[in-house]
Amino acid sequence: MTRHFLFLLGSSRDHGNTELLARRAAEQLPAGVTQRWIDLAEHPLPDFEDLRHDSDHVRPSGDHTAALLDATLAATDLVIASPLYWYSVSASTKRYLDHWSGWLRTPGVDFKKTMAGRTLWGVTAFAHEEEEVADPLVGTLNHSAAYLGMRFGGVLLGNGSKPGDVLNDSGALAAAKTFFAQEPPLARFPYEVPDAVPDEVPDEVPDAVPCEN
Known about the structure:
The chain is an alpha/beta fold and about 210 residues long.
């Protein structure tokens, strides 16, 4: 399958440090790999409404939700490019991920089975020098990938506050050159023992949806 990268920009600022770092990494992708960039600020989603027990889900059409669903389903590689906002993903990114819960139950989509085996990546910039502060963001993306049976390429980390700061982070720029060249493993939850779980997409997955009650 020809690889198709979908970059989802979750910053509240145009051309911010996270986007700059993501574009540096994207420059290294082979010529045959297609790219699509979507700014979530320009494709605002409504707050997710949990309708599991109230009504049937209907596939969205003609709006930003439909466009993002179609773009997500078309991607072999999904890149969440979100700055570290209060130690997690941005509000627009979280809202996009919340809509995955609805897409899981949208007729004719088979979202979980479709996404299984594809790859989720992350890119983030933050002002701290200590990378550990980004662990909650990394966990959000890893666990989301694990739930869907996706592979997880990790998160490219960069340091920056003022616009353009990340371009002074030599370590991040060096990591960007090879970030997408790695072979990502199947995502695992922390409680899973790698040796006890086969490195393949499971045939069946739990019915429960993360973070819903």
